[in-house]
Amino acid sequence: SLLGRHLLRPRAAQAYAGALDAVVTDLLRRLQCQRDRHPQHLVPDVATEFYKFGLEGISSVLFGSRLGCLEPEVPRDTETFIRSINTMFVTTLLTM
C-alpha cells in the first residue's frame, strides 16, 4: 500500500518515533497502574489493553492525534469508537 511503502523507509518511520514513544510510555504506565491495583499484581485483561494500545498508536500515526484509549479514564466517545471498531472486526470475520 502507499502508506506501507512510506513507512518502510527508515527516515519516514523516524518521524513517528516521538509520537509512538509517548503511546508506549502511556501503555506501560497504564499496565503498571492495573498491576498495582490487582491483589496478585496481574493485569486482568491484557488483550484489551494491547488492543487499545494498537488503536492509540495507529491514530497517532494516521491522524496525528490521540484518542485517549490509554487514559486512566477513557472518554465515553473513545469507548464507543473502540466498541464500533471491534464490532466491525467481528462482523468482517463472520462474513468471510
TrEMBL record:
User: Which PANTHER family would you find in this protein's record?
Assistant: CYTOCHROME P450 (PTHR24279), CYTOCHROME P450 FAMILY 27 SUBFAMILY B MEMBER 1 (PTHR24279:SF121)
Q: Which keywords accompany this UniProt record?
A: Heme, Iron, Metal-binding, Monooxygenase, Oxidoreductase
Q: Which InterPro entries match?
A: CYP11_CYP27_families, Cyt_P450_sf
Read off the SUPFAM superfamilies from this record: Cytochrome P450
This protein's GO CC annotations:
mitochondrial inner membrane
Q: Which GO terms describe its biological process?
A: C21-steroid hormone biosynthetic process; cellular response to peptide hormone stimulus; cholesterol metabolic process; cortisol metabolic process; glucocorticoid biosynthetic process
Alphabetically, the GO molecular function entries are: heme binding; iron ion binding; monooxygenase activity; oxidoreductase activity, acting on paired donors, with incorporation or reduction of molecular oxygen
Family statement: Belongs to the cytochrome P450 family.
Q: What is the recorded name of this protein? A: CP27B protein
Please indicate which superkingdom the organism of origin belongs to: Eukaryota
Cofactor list: heme
